[in-house]
Design a protein that fits this description.
The chain is an all-alpha fold and 343 residues long. The protein is built from 15 helices and no strands.
């Protein structure tokens, strides 16, 4: 490797960027520059405001889901928890509950739904994939039980407008600050605390982590609880943004969230990933979809693109890691050859 390339990598690592994180940031910059030059209206402040509003639910759910996937688990029911929490919020408001109390109850419901998932995974030892596929359907069905096909749309105007209000002097929605605050919290927990080291250990080898004193099951249980609560918070935001509580709110959103998490470099097998990489993945995926929508690309094509990125996100980081390992081995001297004396 050239000395200049080595210095660049060292600077990226010192800034907290891994190799895949650096690739994502570079891809994000290239995507924004090309879309700004080629797609009309992409670079306008109005479009970026709508883009950020679209990404807020994805980013919110992606943060706790990152920690879940790092431990080697998965939660496919996140969008259904969003929908059920939205439906319950609409039902409680329609039943004359005070709005602050209805919001708190909806978030607490999300935590309870996450605890239900976590109990089956950690207490009964069932695979999280199977459990959350089941609750994906269960929670969505319960949302239709609560609201049916009707929509609740008579929310207070102040709540609906405040949810999408911009930071004064900018076009940036103020709820982005909530995402940033949660990203800082999850980032500190994952990268700067013993809890984070335990998460990585559990993802790499759960048995070894237990022998090291990590309470793997307890940790995973609370991760599912937090994921449920944050998914419900995303449901509250979704409801107020569109001023409509519906049972089908957020349908299919789990695909975008999982694609962003895996595209962000989180290994589907656990043990690897960063919060920064996931945020870059969210922005990259959202920017691509937004640019394609502005270019009048069909919804079916957008689904194909998302699916393709999901596959790439699973394969590419592992390919990069394999290449790096081989390059490292090729640069290191062979232990056999080092023992052979020179003639």
């Amino acid at each position: 490797m050239a000395p200049s390339s080595s210095k660049v990598l060292d600077r990226l690592r010192s800034a907290g960027l891994g190799s895949w994180d650096a690739v994502l940031v570079a891809a994000l910059v290239i995507t924004i520059v090309m879309a700004s030059a080629l797609v009309p209206n992409f670079a306008t402040s109005r479009n970026w405001a709508f883009l950020l509003l679209d990404l807020i639910p994805v980013a919110l759910i992606a943060l706790p889901l990152t920690l879940v996937v790092i431990t080697g688990e998965i939660d496919l029911s996140v969008a259904s928890m969003l929908g059920l929490s939205s439906a319950v919020l609409g039902q409680l408001w329609g039943s004359s509950w005070p709005m602050p109390l209805a919001v708190v109850a909806s978030v607490l419901l999300g935590a309870a739904l996450g605890a239900f998932n976590g109990t089956f995974v950690t207490v009964f030892g069932l695979p999280s994939l199977a459990v959350t596929i089941g609750t994906l359907a269960l929670y969505r069905g319960l949302a239709f039980v609560v609201l049916g096909d009707r929509a609740v749309a008579d929310f207070p105007f102040s709540w609906s407008t405040d949810a999408v209000r911009a930071i004064p002097g900018t076009h940036i929605p103020w709820f982005v600050l909530v995402v940033v605050a949660l990203a800082v919290v999850f980032g500190i927990v994952l990268h700067a605390t013993p809890v984070g080291r335990g998460l990585y250990a559990a993802g790499n080898n759960a048995e070894a982590a237990r022998f090291s004193g990590v309470s793997v099951n307890r940790m995973k249980f609370w991760l599912f609880v937090v994921t449920g609560a944050v998914s419900a918070l995303a449901g509250v935001f979704w409801t107020f943004r569109y001023a409509s509580a519906r049972a089908d709110n957020g349908s299919g959103l789990e695909l975008s969230v999982i694609a962003a998490v895996l595209l962000g470099g989180v290994s589907i097998f656990g043990g690897r990933g960063t919060i920064l990489g996931v945020l870059a993945g969210v922005l990259l995926l959202g920017s691509l979809r937004n640019a394609l929508q502005l270019a009048d690309v069909s919804a079916d094509t957008l689904t194909v693109v998302t699916g393709a990125l999901l596959i790439i996100s699973v394969v590419a980081p592992n390919v990069v890691q394999i290449v790096r390992d081989r390059l490292r081995r090729s640069r290191s001297p062979s232990p056999i050859s080092s023992e052979i004396p020179s003639a």
